[in-house]
Amino acid sequence: MGQQIAEMAAKYLDDNMIDYTDRDYFGTWKEFNKECEFIARGFMALGLKKLIYIYLGN
Question: How many separate helices (H) and strands (E) can be counted in the chain?
Fold first, then answer.
C-alpha cells in the first residue's frame, strides 16, 4: 500500500487528497504521503514488520 500512495503522491503532488467540507482541514497527496511515511517509520521503530496486521478499531 505504501508504494501505491507514493506513486499517487508523485503523480498528483500538490492536488488535494482530502478536503473536509465541515471543518478546516485539507491536505495534498504530498502531505498525505509524508504522514504515511512518518507513521510507517514509527511502526518499524516499534519492531513491526511487513505482513503484520494491526487492528486499530473504529
Answer: 2, 2
